[in-house]
DNA sequence: TATAAGTTCGA
DNA sequence: CGAACTTAT
């Protein structure tokens, strides 16, 4: 058995916005926001070290957080991490007791009431394991998924033995779409069973409808370690390929970030380093409007307001708002990624940053740059009756049915469009032309 | 996990 | 004439 190493990342949440988070913080002061596999702590070569350094630096510097490390290892890299991140933001709680239950208990006691025990990585297959025959990592999702399936994984551990000990969020209520669903393994399993026996059958199309409840709502549980993906995978049937693929995407992006930790902040496709962004005062104001859900595009605004209200956003809408920020407002993708990480209850560095890169066209296996979402037609297609928009945009509650998507038929108190989509679409295509090398 | 513009085809 | 399909971006 590998010795447990416990790390977590602490960032400054605006706790006043989230009474449930506040209660959890009251219980233990800190929240375990980022948990690493202890194998990454072993001196096993530069790639692992780089992963550790860069993830932590990314989190600390880009997200305004604090790092807190507790461990029993004489791990030689800890001082280096401290040096990288800078004095004052790293607290190391050294504990030299032998590994085992006693040491776990001592560490836990030293760190407060949070039940933080970590076992194993939160992936079916540990990042870095699935490789091409020549040893190189996969850069395209579909072959990765095939190899990942072929690789296989252990059966899930029994409840209460493995996954339940992973991380605990006792007392933490996750403020997501389903109000009042609590944290913890038991709650995660109940959400899973509800989904498995219901919306999963219609997942292919149902997951794209933000006006309905067709997604699994498991993202926060997976991200916080309340449930292990192997538990879900073991429960899936041959017909559930789409949901299995969503889990595969999660593993794929973890693998990509493991191999290239710098891509948490930098373009995976370096050709995009030359891409022209808008970052001046006007762009900052548009970015602000986007953050607040005041762009004048109904689905975009509904999504951004759902994010602020619930710390969660429907996946289809995430794609729409991301496309809008990058391709209609021409803002760097990492601005949007950072905003998401600050607000999403399920925000995961690998999935978040690489899905943003996918939308921006600069990532692994990215969407072709010319795939530009039309925020109006996306709204009409996936929120056909306008129910989603009306739920989150009070100014539009008086507008009937699909009319909420008609920009020229919206009430005066609703913001005018910050930009003209057709024009900005062309601007984006022209800027892409400028960096193309074909 | 796209869109817009153009083309084909049948009612 | 609109739905379905094709194609360039």
TrEMBL record:
Its EC number is 4.1.99.3. It comes from the Bacteria. Residues 3-127 form the Photolyase/cryptochrome alpha/beta domain. The keyword Lyase applies. Keywords: Chromophore, FAD, Flavoprotein, Lyase. Its cofactor is FAD. Pfam families: DNA_photolyase, FAD_binding_7. One of its GO terms (molecular function) is deoxyribodipyrimidine photo-lyase activity. The keyword Flavoprotein applies. PROSITE patterns: DNA_PHOTOLYASES_1_1, PHR_CRY_ALPHA_BETA. Belongs to the DNA photolyase family. This is Cryptochrome/photolyase family protein. It comes from Kutzneria chonburiensis.
